[in-house]
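[recover] target loaded
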């Protein structure tokens, strides 16, 4: 059966060798950066180092750009700060981290606009369009490309204009308007030939091959892909060459030359794995999966489609996912599994719909108008050149008359062009004013609603704060203790709890399902049930308390109904401290307790079930009894601290590192410990977003 393939668009497949440098150059730049005294020369060196590693080592490239960013911000240098953000956008876009790239490009544009750096505004807008397009945000991408095009035209940058025309062609190709895409690619090709811009000419050839492929003109596609490959080899652009290996594999598949197609796909996969090019790897795997579907090997087809889908989800590549879902549709259709075929057809359609925009037609019309204007300029230039040739051949007596006629014609054309531009500008301004009025109106409504929601959430915080134990009472019970409590949002799904009954003092840290408002609702129920069980039901062991809370929570949330009810719950670490007998009783639901004694960390493990959810109402939680000594440090905590992303590689802190922080701080008084873990947390998190609610409780036995 026939399967739909997606050709790899090479616009983003920048040449490694075009940006990467030899090791001597990198070492030289490193020395410059280290020797410079935190001035713009050191920022410039770090930006150059980031460029040099941008398509070979993502982590190094990001690290270099960030070092430059720190220095530029200290210098209050908006231009170089913008350059650092721009380079971060380039690197992250190149490796598929498009959400972060959009943020970086947006920051760069804002800074460049302050400095009126038109070239860099255009360059950053073009990059922003690339990242938006890969995220499936086609209308926003088109806006960014048109902004870049207008600036490049104003500063007469032909290379920039050609790049934008290439991008706009890709937009038309994504909208399945292949003939119009080819018109844009041809204009870009013409400009790149004029200015001898061979790296971008190779990409023009590749994208023209893509458009011919989509038109089922496979012979023409093969010609242009081979032209692109030849030029990539001349330039040393191995990444572009590998991309066109995948494209040629598609062509040979459609020509039913399956052996040759597999050879090209295998070459592309081998190259991508060797060079860490996950985007290229996903594309080649998808197409090889399509080849196996075509030849009826559905087991191998699913293996490669699954691998490609995993990569596309990792990078949130909606365009690739649409094609992959279409690939699944063809595969299941070939297997006769029409239920799954329909499922993936529906997924593909819904993803396409999510990328559509009611304003796209207007955007494409604007782009066509730009192309017509570009063609008109070329025709006018050709007329002038022809006139000059005719004048040179004519006798001297006719020169003045022909020149006058030519001048009149040019003036008429110029007048017509200016009038046309005036009309378009007038219409665009009217539409822009109307759109601005609508935006202002919507903005006012949104701000009003946002204020109402914020007021409601802040009031909910007051309620939650009222229910949480009072800190003076907690510190009166424990001379040396702390609570580090940081909600992700205004209200929290984590909570701490404290109560006294008889000769025991009870403390708990809980982590409810979700965070923000949903988590806060669960925390209110959790606090209420703990108070009821201890004060009214008179349960006095942590095991009995958790068992009773589990039963009551399941009743409140109707989790025992035949319908199943809600599956929400909470993880809890609950401790009873008996200082008269110097012992600790502990029970936990998915949350342990740590005790540090003489620089040794002892872990009391929790039961591997939650409170509520799927835990049976009859479940008995494990009870640990632990003899205490003077100066024992007891720690209860949710998972938010260890799960925070940050550090030099922007990865999770992990439990191992959290333990080391507590061990290194455990000799200090508890309030000093709180200060240490607070500083460690914010240093680790740096500028990243907090990922979850955080609650850490520390108690020293005295």
């Amino acid at each position: 059966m026939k399967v739909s393939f997606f050709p790899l668009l090479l616009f983003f497949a920048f040449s490694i060798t075009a940006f990467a440098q030899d090791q001597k150059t990198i070492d030289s730049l490193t020395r410059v950066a280290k020797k410079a005294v935190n001035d713009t020369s050191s920022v410039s060196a770090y930006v150059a180092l980031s460029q040099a590693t941008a398509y070979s080592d993502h982590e190094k490239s990001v690290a270099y750009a960030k070092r430059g960013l720190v220095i530029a911000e200290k210098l209050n240098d908006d231009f170089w700060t913008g350059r650092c953000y721009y380079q971060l956008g380039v690197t992250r876009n190149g490796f598929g981290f498009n959400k972060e790239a959009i943020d970086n490009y947006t920051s760069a544009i804002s800074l460049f606009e302050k400095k009126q750096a038109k070239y860099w505004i255009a360059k950053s807008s073009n990059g922003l369009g690339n990242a938006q397009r890969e995220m499936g945000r086609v209308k926003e991408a088109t806006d960014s490309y048109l902004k870049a095009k207008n600036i490049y035209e104003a500063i007469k940058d032909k290379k920039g204009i050609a790049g934008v025309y290439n991008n706009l062609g890709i937009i038309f190709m994504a909208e399945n308007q292949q003939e119009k895409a080819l018109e844009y690619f041809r204009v870009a090709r013409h400009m790149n030939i004029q200015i001898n811009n061979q790296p971008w000419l190779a990409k023009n050839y590749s994208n023209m091959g893509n458009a011919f492929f989509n038109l089922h003109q496979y012979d023409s596609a093969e010609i242009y892909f081979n032209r692109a490959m030849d030029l990539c080899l001349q330039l040393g652009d191995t990444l572009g060459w590998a991309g066109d290996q995948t494209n040629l594999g598609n062509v040979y598949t459609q020509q039913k030359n399956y052996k040759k197609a597999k050879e090209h796909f295998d070459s592309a996969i081998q190259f991508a794995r060797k060079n860490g090019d996950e985007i290229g790897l996903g594309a080649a795997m998808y197409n090889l999966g399509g080849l196996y579907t075509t030849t009826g090997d559905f087991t191998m087809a699913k293996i490669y489609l699954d691998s490609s889908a995993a990569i596309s989800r990792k990078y949130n590549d909606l365009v690739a996912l649409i094609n992959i879902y279409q690939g699944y549709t063809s595969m299941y259709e070939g297997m006769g599994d029409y239920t799954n075929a329909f499922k993936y057809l529906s997924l593909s359609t819904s993803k396409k719909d999510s990328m559509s925009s009611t304003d796209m037609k207007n955007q494409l019309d604007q782009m066509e108008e730009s192309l017509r204007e570009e063609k008109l300029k070329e025709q006018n230039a050709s007329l002038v050149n022809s006139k000059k040739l005719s004048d040179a051949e004519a006798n001297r007596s006719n020169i003045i008359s022909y020149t006058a006629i030519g001048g009149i014609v040019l003036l008429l054309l110029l007048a017509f062009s200016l009038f046309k531009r005036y009309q378009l500008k007038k219409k665009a301004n009217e539409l822009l004013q109307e759109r601005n009025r609508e935006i202002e109106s919507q903005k006012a409504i949104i701000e009003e609603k946002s204020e109402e929601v914020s007021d409601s959430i802040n009031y909910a915080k007051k309620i939650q704060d009222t229910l949480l134990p009072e800190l003076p009472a907690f510190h009166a019970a424990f001379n040396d203790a702390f609570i580090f409590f940081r909600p992700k949002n205004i209200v929290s799904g984590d909570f701490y709890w404290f109560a006294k009954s008889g000769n025991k003092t009870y403390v708990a840290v809980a982590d409810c399902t979700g965070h923000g408002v949903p988590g806060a609702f669960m925390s209110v129920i959790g606090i209420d049930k703990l108070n009821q069980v201890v004060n009214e039901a008179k349960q006095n062991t942590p095991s009995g308390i958790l068992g009773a809370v589990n039963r009551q929570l399941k009743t409140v949330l109707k989790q025992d109904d035949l319908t199943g009810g809600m599956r929400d719950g909470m993880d809890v670490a609950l401790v009873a401290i008996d200082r008269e007998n110097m012992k600790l009783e502990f029970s936990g639901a998915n949350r342990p307790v740590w005790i540090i004694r003489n620089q040794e960390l002892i872990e009391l493990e929790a039961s591997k079930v939650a409170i509520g959810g799927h835990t049976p109402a009859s479940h008995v939680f494990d009870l640990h009894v632990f003899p205490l000594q003077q100066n024992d440090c007891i720690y209860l905590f949710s998972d938010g601290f260890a799960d925070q992303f940050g550090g030099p590689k922007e990865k999770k802190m992990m439990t191992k590192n959290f333990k080391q922080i507590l061990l290194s701080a455990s000799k200090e008084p508890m309030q000093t410990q709180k200060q240490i873990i607070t500083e460690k947390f914010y240093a680790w998190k740096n500028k990243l977003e907090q990922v979850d609610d955080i609650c850490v409780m520390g108690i020293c036995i005295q």
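[recover] notes: The first strand starts at residue 481 and ends at 486.
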